[in-house]
Write a structure and sequence with these properties.
Number of strands: 20
Number of domains: 2
Helix content: 10-25%
CATH architecture of the largest domain: Alpha-Beta Complex
Structural class: alpha+beta
Largest sheet: 7 strands, antiparallel
Order of helices and strands: EEEEEEEEEEEEEHHEEEEHEEHEH
CATH superfamily of the largest domain: Naphthalene 1,2-dioxygenase Alpha Subunit, Chain A, domain 1
Number of helices: 5
């Protein structure tokens, strides 16, 4: 059944509209990416430089020297400060200019400082009002806390962040885009099971049971597979896959079982807008430590990496078509679009709320 109507229509003006939700924590980098030298990133079309103070704490600063707009990420860390290596201005970790060659004292010049937190192996940055930056609002990335042996990576995709959100809210594409990679390795048919969708304050919980399935292609014993993930603003994918003895799903009323699974794995991913047409995609995949081994992890990583290359190809091709499609042209949704439509409504509501707050100032 094809659904139509105002709420079920995907409008091209939403994808790539250039609007960003600013009062959220965004993943800017993996912790291991930030060592002794500064790194520059663009988030929400704003240049940001990250560096570590002498005590190792991260600093997020506007990556734009106010002198001639040279990138401070090409600068040098000096204690807790960052010096621009174009003409020598030195800025403290509070953004205040501490030194300007040939002028004493330094003028009242400063660059913007962004709240930043290092947690779960990610560097998080708050791009909006600093007064609203509550670290307690950083989502719990359970798979990165030590119970799973995880491998990490990052990928740039030339597509709007909302197209990536659409992709991750609807895993029915695994049967087609990833027919020989993730779709095959999961040994289930994602497009034949409509998920249960629970709306959360900042996103969705999306759950599927696959009964009498296989743990992997060729696995001799049938199992019940539980796929459950939270998809949270601005684009956080926190998923677990767990395998139970056949019959568990019905026995527990299709809720999450109390007993431990036969095996489990985790996928933790984050979508961060770079510009309205470019996104950075952080991903980690792994297996619960009791089952983890090098050969198993190598095989999983190979499949996941190949699958995400498939995502990159189709999303970038989709973005090119979206860009040349008239804005009044509508796309109609299928039953599997329920989650992404709900997430888009949440995005629109948050964008509207921020616009209303800005207008009232």
């Amino acid at each position: 059944m094809i659904m139509s109507g105002q709420d079920e229509t995907l409008r091209h003006r939403v994808a790539g509209s250039g609007g960003f939700i600013r009062n959220l924590w965004y993943v800017a980098a993996w912790s291991h990416e930030l060592a002794d030298t500064p790194i520059g990133r663009v988030l929400l079309e704003e240049p940001v430089v990250f560096y570590r103070r002498a005590d190792g704490a991260p600093v997020a600063m506007e990556d734009r020297c106010p002198h001639r707009f040279a990138p401070l990420s090409m600068g040098r860390v000096e204690g807790d400060d960052l010096r621009c290596m174009y003409h020598g201005l030195r800025f403290g970790c509070d953004g205040v200019c501490r030194e300007m060659p040939a002028r004493e004292p330094a003028p009242p010049v400063r660059v913007r400082i962004y709240p930043t937190v290092e947690r779960w192996g990610w560097l998080w940055v708050w791009m909006g009002d600093p007064a609203q930056a509550d670290p307690e609002k950083i989502p719990d990335a359970f798979g990165l806390q030590g119970a799973y042996d995880m491998r990490t990576d990052v990928m740039d995709i030339d597509a709007c962040w909302e197209l990536l959100n659409d992709n991750l809210c609807d895993l029915s594409h695994l049967d087609f885009s990833h027919a020989t990679t993730l779709g095959a390795s999961s040994a289930v048919r994602w497009s034949e099971r409509k998920p249960h969708i629970e709306e959360l304050p900042d996103g969705l919980r999306i759950t599927r049971w696959f009964e009498d399935a296989r743990m992997a292609p060729g696995h001799p014993l049938p199992v019940d597979t539980l796929s459950s993930y939270r998809y949270l603003l601005p684009g956080l994918f926190l998923m677990s896959m767990a395998w139970y003895p056949a019959g568990t799903a019905a026995r527990c009323g299709y809720a999450e079982p109390v007993e431990p699974p036969l095996s489990s794995r985790a996928d933790q991913q984050a979508v961060t807008p770079v510009t309205s047409r470019r996104s950075r995609y952080f991903f980690a995949t792994g297996v619960a430590r009791p089952q983890a081994n090098q050969r198993l992890l190598d095989g999983i990583v190979a499949v996941v990496t190949a699958a995400f290359a498939e995502d990159k190809a189709i999303l970038e091709a989709q973005q090119k078509i979206v860009d040349i499609t008239p804005p009044e042209r509508q796309r109609f949704a299928t039953p599997h679009d329920a989650a992404l439509l709900a997430f888009r409504r949440l995005v629109r509501a948050r964008l509207a709320a921020e616009a209303e707050t800005d207008a009232a100032r």
